[in-house]
């Protein structure tokens, strides 16, 4: 029987929509239309990923709930609402793997921009000011990557290539990780922070990681260190970050994600020296939408053929625990 699929969108459709429509009885819904179209659907594709519309439209009768929800993103926190998490018949999948290389390149670019003060150079160019000055090397500097999933691992490999020393922070301490070498747990975190020139956040947002970078973590960071966040904005206590940046203890930050997006115009982060603000675009490179759509199409084929889905999320943990080998 052909499945009834609802694709949640904001005006931009998946580039492979015709291929999707060949496999499923497909309807398209805006956030406003979703409450009428979601009940009774077999599957939902959240093509517009950062939304609470699914939670707000979820049917009270479990018999009308879709059996599969896929999100065109790595993060799934807007979908971890009780009715979905608590229903064992609902499978949640994400787009883990699509963004890894792009975000790793972005992190390298941010670190270079901070070390070489490219924002200052561009500002001097804008003012037609000739100001020679020294910059910093990144070779030999230490990067602590907080989050040992696929994105964190891609970041670690990228930074090692350019000569940085890399360690990680994860749930379990170990000394022989293939990408990080040493992985610290929370018990040894203070030691790791004290030796890191750059702290890169690539962890998922869960109940355990929300506001994990609080005043104690910021105070434990090496004086003159910099924070790079390509994970989720809510990983960081932004008020405390502003305070530690303002007093000069930290040299700067590069932030692609924020607790509130878009970042409010009144936020002091916009104008702070040494801070780079970007609009949640670290993974958005040429062709990224096609990659997201192709991953969903592959999963739709798998579901139609009764094969295991890629990127099944552990709904209690909030992330994919193991990467499933990709096979044709």
UniProtKB/TrEMBL annotation:
Residues 108-282 form the D-isomer specific 2-hydroxyacid dehydrogenase NAD-binding domain. Keywords: NAD, Oxidoreductase. Transmembrane segments: none annotated. Gene3D superfamilies: NAD(P)-binding Rossmann-like Domain (3.40.50.720). Pfam families: 2-Hacid_dh_C. This is D-2-hydroxyacid dehydrogenase. It comes from Streptomyces milbemycinicus.
